[in-house]
Specification:
Elements: E1 3-7, E2 14-16, H1 22-31, E3 39-42, H2 48-59, E4 63-67, E5 72-76, H3 87-90, H4 100-107, E6 109-113, H5 126-134, E7 138-141, E8 146-150, E9 157-159, H6 165-175, E10 181-185, H7 191-202, E11 206-208, E12 214-218, E13 226-229, H8 234-247, E14 251-253, H9 262-270, E15 276-278, E16 281-284, H10 295-300, E17 303-304, H11 316-324, E18 328-333, H12 344-348, E19 353-358, E20 361-366, E21 374-376, H13 380-392, E22 396-400, H14 403-406, H15 412-418, E23 422-426
Parallel strand pairs: 2-14, 3-13, 9-10, 17-18, 21-22
Antiparallel strand pairs: 1-22, 1-23, 3-5, 4-5, 6-8, 7-8, 10-12, 11-12, 14-16, 15-16, 18-20, 19-20
């Protein structure tokens, strides 16, 4: 087990380059199973989740050449050696469920276990199974936690009862090789879904409606290999904006995709953050005057997570830390995961004034000075929020169980040290 030791109160400033989109590459890796030719990725983030996914690929027979120092990855699976995911691998992370669609499409069958991942509330698989059954798959429970999918897939009208990102991606991966025409209605449209569509299109898939809630796929006989860049991670960019704002430094984030940041920046502006676009870069000026812009709106409507293009749930924990440093009261409504908000109670131990109304809603009353204290990361996003709080706080903060944070932020301590933070990792 590792921990971060943070001496807070130092402004973070300088230049940082975002990592490749975590939620994109974790779906792109299983997508390589859809071709017998090599697929090469550029700008792959050196995060632990990538290592886990590549381990699963090797168990399935893939040849993997990964250079974390350069971000270059080549995956080649001329033949699939297994049609199932082992229990230990499946339960290491949520994204293990992304092998269902590709294995079903290539092998005609797949067995697996219910996936693991962050403990932020119920994350059932019903939308995945329902979507794949609409393509013709037969589903069967093998035990209370294991299951199988099998059958010949054909194009179909697929309706998702919720715009689940991973269910959309699983159905998409299954449909690109299914004969006939598939439409996915109520599809998710997040940037990582778009990136997966763009990758598949380069490989020869026929997909229309990318970026909308209705995807149209015409099945093709085969896909080819390709070289694919992984787009920048907008959650990583949002994280760096928060770190700069709560510590008072001036930061330039290089090579962002401005269109991916619209909803995040809109809600950040309600808390007083101002940013400037400089070509492909984003500048966060120093000494932001963090104040709730519209107090009536913030108390009654506030910041709430919704499917894209609205505010992403992955930014909720960091936005709460940001609000502790903004003058005024703000309601936060996490509509997706009832376990995501409980981390906020420990911010109160640092001096925050947060009312936990119920599992989905908290009210943050700012601005409150924070004092360092020992914390333990319960999941990836809450763990990073604790790091942000520690950087803004006076005195020493320790954040334990940082293995959760490593899943989305590679070499975090060295990155932050270059920006002026006093942070070290201790085993």
């Amino acid at each position: 087990m590792s921990k971060f030791i943070i001496e807070g109160g130092r402004p973070l400033g300088g230049v940082v380059k975002p990592i490749g989109n975590k939620n994109a590459i974790l779906k792109m890796i299983p997508a390589t199973l859809l071709t017998a030719e090599p697929v090469t990725f550029e700008n792959v983030p050196a995060i632990s989740d990538v290592t886990v996914m590549l381990g699963i690929m090797k168990e399935l027979g893939a040849k993997v050449d990964y250079r974390p120092e350069t971000g270059r990855l080549t995956v080649h699976t001329p033949a699939v050696s297994a049609a199932g995911i082992e229990r230990e691998a499946a339960q290491k992370m949520r994204a293990s469920n992304m092998f269902l669609g590709p294995l079903l499409a290539r092998q005609g069958q797949v067995t697996s276990f219910l996936p693991g991942g962050d403990k932020i509330g119920p994350r059932e698989m019903t939308a995945h199974f329902d979507g794949l059954r609409q393509l013709g798959a037969k589903f069967r429970w093998l035990s209370f936690e294991s299951f199988s999918l099998s059958g010949k897939l054909r194009g179909a009208e697929v309706f998702l009862y919720e715009p689940s990102v991973t269910a959309t991606e699983n159905v998409l991966l299954a449909a690109v090789l299914a004969p006939g025409r598939t439409t996915i209605t109520n599809a998710a449209s997040e940037p990582h879904v778009q990136a997966l569509c763009e990758m598949l299109s380069v490989m020869g898939a026929d997909i229309k409606g990318v970026g909308t809630n209705r995807l149209e796929i015409r099945g093709v006989a085969e896909l080819r290999g390709a070289t694919v860049p992984v787009p920048p991670d907008y959650v990583y960019v949002g994280t760096m904006i928060v770190l700069s704002a709560v510590t008072g430094g001036e930061l330039t984030v290089k090579d962002v995709r401005h269109e991916d940041l619209k909803s995040i920046l809109y809600f950040f502006r309600q808390l007083g953050i101002r940013t400037q676009a400089d070509g492909a870069d984003l500048v966060v000026p120093k000494r932001q005057r963090l104040t709730v812009e519209n107090q009536a709106w913030a108390r009654t409507k506030g910041i709430y997570s919704q499917p894209w293009p609205c505010f992403p749930t992955d930014m909720m924990s960091l936005a709460i830390v940001l609000a502790t440093q903004a003058k005024g009261a703000t309601l936060f409504f996490e509509k997706m995961y009832p376990g995501r908000m409980f981390f906020a109670d420990y911010l109160n131990g640092m001096g925050a004034n947060i009312i936990i109304a119920d599992p989905h809603r908290v009210v943050v009353n700012g601005r409150t000075p924070l004092e360092g204290r020992p914390l333990q990361a319960p999941d990836l996003r809450a763990g990073m929020a604790y790091v942000a709080a520690g950087l803004a706080a006076a005195g020493r903060t320790t954040v334990e169980s940082v293995e959760h944070i490593d899943r989305g932020y590679p070499h975090l301590e060295s990155t932050l040290q270059k920006l002026g933070a006093q942070i070290t990792r201790s085993e």
